[in-house]
Amino acid sequence: MRIALLGAGLMGRSVAHDLLRNSGLEELRLADADETRLDALAGRLDDPRVRTERLDAADERAVARWIEGCDALVSAASYRLNLGLARAAISAKTHFTDMGGNSEVVARELALDDEAKRLGVTLIPDMGLAPGLVNVLTRRAAELTDRLEAVRLLVGGLPQTRRGEWEYELVFSAEGLVNEYREPCMVLREGKLVTVAPLTEVETVRDPDLGELEAFHTSGGSSTLPKTFAGRVRSLEYKTLRYPGHARLVRALFELGLDGEGEVEVDGRRVRPRRLLEKLITDKLAGEGRDLVVLHGEFTGERDGGPLTLSCRLLDYADEETGLTAMMRCTGFPVAVTALMLSDGRITERGALPPEKAIPAAELLHELDRRGISIPFTEIAP
User: Which UniProt keywords apply (predicted)?
Assistant: First the structure.
């Protein structure tokens, strides 16, 4: 297998780490626009199968030439680049997967379905943790029931040690985080698509290991799930988990306009409030890497004529031996497994498809279990 990986940041490092553990991988092509970052990751990986290239990911023709002969391309770059990368993959007849980050971009990727089918290519956007892994878990729950009625997904990336007023450390890009906090959220209620505001409907959730947490709506975590299950499932919602008080702090910043896209003048200089906020989040809330990922899933429905409730839970911690954070593991490993399954033929659907329609759920969950990310389903007695 030959796989190309675009992006040498934290998530790219996690994807590369996992791909290189596969003995069937002959070559990993690694590219980034930042040569220093690219060389640093290549040095850390220290594997003769890695081939590096400094590349402008916005140049679709250059990307298409670079991935010629590859079985799959993985994007660990900004979501802003994913549509062009998907087009480049189709041009090169190479399968493609990314970690999502923006519902509008994903919709435009999925609109490439006919062209991808015509050329025998599979595109799977949104294949990280949430969205991504939660989509696969929902598919698996649907497979384990005769009729699925309600889906409830709660996911959070948190520091192991609670510090300061925020009790939060940045575990992925600030740009993506702000997107989740400010964009509208899609849910299913009574089987119909409904849009709700982010940072709303805050509720208390108790985790057996972490104690009291809060859950609130954020954008994009379930991605295509509401549309996929509209008319089939009565209720479907996704919320983010944080330590208590987080949503109120974010709302206070937004009330001041710090999520604004338009420029404002400060001391004779034009400043975009959102860019300032993202810079401050990156600088002030950067963590030490000792994080955790917590996931709660609850699925109600019917099986064999009777009511059934399934639950699943994940609590994953940073791996100090490999230096991979929990968020890197839980985001990077699912997309790496997807790339491997695209390359070795275990994913057979062609076209542009969301994870819940393309990925064999039991197989992906088995692969994650082999990597120490175990998410068993348990039945809750009625």
Answer: Oxidoreductase
Total of domains in the chain: 2
**Domain harbouring 120, CATH code:** 3.40.50.720
Give the model confidence (pLDDT) of 343-353 as tens digits.
999 999 999 99
* pTM value > 0.85: yes
pLDDT (tens digit per residue) in 228-262: 999 999 999 999 999 999 999 999 999 999 999 99
- Residue 40: how many other CB atoms lie within 10 Å: 14
Q: Is 258 helix (H, G, I), strand (E, B) or coil?
A: coil
- Other C-beta atoms lying within 10 Å of the C-beta of residue 197: 13
Instruction: Examine the domain organization and report whether 146 and 263 are in the same domain.
Output: yes
For residue 151, the number of C-alpha atoms closer than 13 Å in the C-beta half-sphere is 27
Residue whose pair of structure tokens reads 């409907």 in the numeric block: 201
Q: Report the share of the chain in percent with pLDDT over 90.
A: 93
Q: How far is Cα of residue 291 from the mean position of the Cα atoms in its chain?
A: 16
Closest among 363, 373, 382, 244 to 313, alpha carbons compared? 373
Structural tokens at position 43: 């040095």
